[in-house]
Known about the structure:
Strand content: over 45%
CATH class of the largest domain: Mainly Beta
Strand order of the largest sheet: 2-1-4-8-6
Helix content: under 10%
CATH architecture of the largest domain: Sandwich
Number of strands: 40
Structural class: mainly beta
Amino acid sequence: MLLLPVVSLRAKVVDHPVRALIQTLEVSIAGSPITSGSTQDFGNVDLLSTSSAITIVLTNLGGPENLTINSVNLSGAHAADFNLDTSGLLNLLGSTGSTSFTVSLSPTVSGSRTALIEIDSDDPGVNPFVINLEGTGVKLNQTITFNALPVKTYGDASFPLGATASSTLPVSYSSDNPLVATVSGDIVTIVGAGSANIIASQIGNATYNAAADETQILLVDKATLTATANDQSRAYGAADPSLTISYAGFVNSETSSVLNTPPTTTTSAVATSVVGDYPINISGGIDDNYDFNYVPGTLTITKGLVTVNADNQSRVYGVANPTLTMSYSGFANGENSSVINTLPTATSPAILTSNTGGYSITPAGGIDDNYDFNYVPGTLTITKGLVTVNADNQSRVYGVANPTLTMSYSGFANGENSSVINTLPTATSPAILTSNTGAYSITPAGGIDDNYDFNYVPGTLTITKV
């Protein structure tokens, strides 16, 4: 029971020989008397607000005795929600005198609220005078303010939401598409590209009704991934190398392994494509979270390498050089030397009069659109010529000294003769001064030369009779 302070006055006690003249309490509201036990209904009153105050007027209808108001008390189950104001209340009312107090409802909880007022007086008829109070506390409505969300891009950082409730109660959030965005507390984390409805809710409390949800669309654009075809090169006629791709722009530490369909590379170059630059095109990438920016590359076909070997040759001293030929290796696509724009040629410093020995054969001068040349020199070997040395036949008389043994030569080259021989051969015979008549051999031998070997043909020394 809530006891409100009242003003205490000392009542004047007077003996009344006639009861009709005693003090009588009348309670009225809005000019209309009410009876004890009646109910005053405040109706619906919003929480956190106060109803209009009801003024309750107390009047002394008796006389000439004064009416003493001892107390006005507020009690009941929800007395704390009612506001009793007796600040202007008089304790002593003369005949026809009146005083008043007010009461209002400030509900703290929704639903029915009840209390009662007891007016204690010296009215011998009705005391205490009871007024029942009732009213209904009504929860407040609330609204959510939720501004439009900026467009995001896959890979953007998590960001806070800023919806507010008119009640100032905290707002909760949810996402209808967790494949695009998730919400923890008021923080949105982007999971993928696409759209998600972000729903702001406030479920209310004892004072506020739940707010109507507010929804904003979160649009998450795909990130841009730059896919660059790596430049490559190969030699003419070789198979294309593996055409690879470099990426820039992955987010969240991702790699090409996450792509739904990786892009592919193609080139128009084939095995028989000539030397030059060919584009490496890139296309066909598909992904839920990435758009593709394609940067083509270049496949450079360089010249193949053909090895040109000068074939080794030989000839005899004084003979013209043979045809200097070459052998080839390294052609591609089944080609041979017939495709070369300008065939290489082979040369040697050896001339007709060159001494015996080894002379280089040097290939050079090849020109082609699709081939470079690796030249391997050969050797022209000049061997010695063969000179035939014939011992001239001779004769003498028995007992006479041998004649000069001479030789005839054939096979010299370049118009040469025996004068070029380093060491001339000599001719010898076993016949001596006392040799009997008959035929004796003349043997040539001992010739030495840088450019000639010798074929010796013996002669005959005939000793005749005296």
